[in-house]
Amino acid sequence: MPERCDVQKTSIEWCNFSSNPIYAVRKSDGKRGWACTHASPGCLHCYSETINKRLGTGYPFTKKYEVEVEWRLNVQELAAWFRHKAAGKVFVCDMTDLWHPAIPDEYILSIIGVAAMTPWKTYQFLSKRPERMRHIVETYTIADCLAIVYTATEDSPTLARQFPLNEYRADTAVQQGWPPKNTWWGVSVESPEYLWRINELCQIPAAVRFLSLEPLLAPIELTGGRLPIYSHSGPPCCVEQKGFHRTQHKSLIHWVIVGGESGPGGAPARLVLEFERPRPLLRSRPARRRRDPSGPRRPARRAFN
Fold this sequence. Notes:
9 helices; alpha/beta; 9-stranded mixed beta sheet
């Protein structure tokens, strides 16, 4: 697989660019690809797994093959974040879960540190493992991120030439706060069994917190409105979720993405969107984006504001 060291434009509707500074290599022969582990039923038809089996390491994203790969940080990709001057939203690690337990903390801190030093972009972190997100935020600070980045450049003159680090960059990063205000933090929730991820997300003091209800495999009720989607036949209905406290999360979620299963074998979905007009979904009137349930290649998306 060729080395990819640039921020790429993407067809994903809710961002402008994608970047993958984390990759994996097969220990047996060094073949490059990606790695991950299924976290819940929403991973069943993962597009990244399909691509990886065909063009990457060849391994499925199951726990059995975790020991067969080695995770690596592509510092050339991080250097490209400085060179890429276009503003916009960057989806970080769309081919894996940045917060996978096998990825070292140092890799994650390096990514957050470089993101804080490039404030003209907005970086979107999405995971099915919000407990790891919360651990990183509660354990480290922006100073730890900068220390790791600066130490890496001091040990490598070649890397130092690619990273335009100076006092101004450090001050810029510190001004972003912790977590950096140009980073968005989100979780994927596909069914009521995983509403606990929202509880974890809301403990992170991010400037923007968002949900990816994709693939939405069962009805989920959110504060002030209902966004049920069905992947199997049955009468439309909405259910009250006991694990989701309405008052606790009011105005804490700013963005919601809704979509069905995509890829080979994905179950067809019927979208039913209902919003109580006198009261918005959340107090801050978040943007609500509906993705086409048939997959990312279908045109004519529609945003709900």
